[in-house]
Write a structure and sequence with these properties.
Helix content: 25-40%
CATH architecture: 2-Layer Sandwich
Distance between the termini: 66 Å
Radius of gyration: 19 Å
Strand content: 15-25%
Number of domains: 1
CATH topology: Thymidylate Synthase, Chain A
Shape: globular
Order of helices and strands: HEHEEHHHEEEHEHHH
Number of helices: 9
Number of strands: 7
Structural class: alpha/beta
Oligomer: single chain
CATH class: Alpha Beta
CATH superfamily: Thymidylate synthase/dCMP hydroxymethylase domain
Amino acid sequence: MNISSEIEKPIQENKNIINIREDSVDRLVRSSILNIINNGSRVRVRAGDALQCYGVNYILENPRNRVHSLRPEALKYLCNEFIAYFKGSLNAEEGLAKASKFWSTLVDNDGNINSNYGYYVFHEKVHGYHSQLDWVIKTLEKNSDSRRAIININQNYHKSDTKDFPCTVAIMFYIKNEKLFCEVSSRSTDVITGLPYDMGFFSFVHELVYCILKEKNYPDIILGETIMKTTFTQIYDKTFNKAVDILKIREPDINYIMPVLTDHVSLLHDIYNEESKTNFVKWVYEHAK
């Protein structure tokens, strides 16, 4: 085999994968709606009839521009979801049901759900580590080229008749060209009730990992893109009118930007002690009202 001639052959682009790249969550949501309306296929699944696309990567170029402003009450919901994630309780009434009563419809016999992503990031123990977040940080501290900096969400113990089978599979972090990237593997993403809020939280965790590594180990590191790689992504018929309403809004009246993360020690202290002394957590609590 002539290796040199082989590598000169152009690599064929995977035409089954769609990359949607925007610099804000609002623009990402609008572009995702247009893509599904124009290219989606009809499906009938447990959650209802929907238009669905396959193999879509949602790329947020500016992870700090994470607030969804194109729907009323979106900011309030996002901030209440953050608070539930900080607390990390799988009990719905103690956590996510305070953001939306919808979560109460998915509980098991013990009143628990599986999709409190904050539990897996901040609170689920790993042997020898404080949390999966701690695992990610220490893994990248040991080796900036590591391919093991992963937070697992959907796990083997979720394989049951549960109504709440986590849509997110895992969150991976890696450093390339002095940039920290975050790639989320999602089996299914609803672009109305899932994408804007999931991307909001994942981009926060991304910035948090960046903040810690920059303060402790890599002063020249740059915040890269937050990417959600989705196998299935859809608009359900029951929320189709909401999708159309979003398309009618060209730009939000107010563009909310969360405070930049600094002093990760104080920030994590707030998270683990349910306090709000740092500017970021204080902002979250203020906008959750």
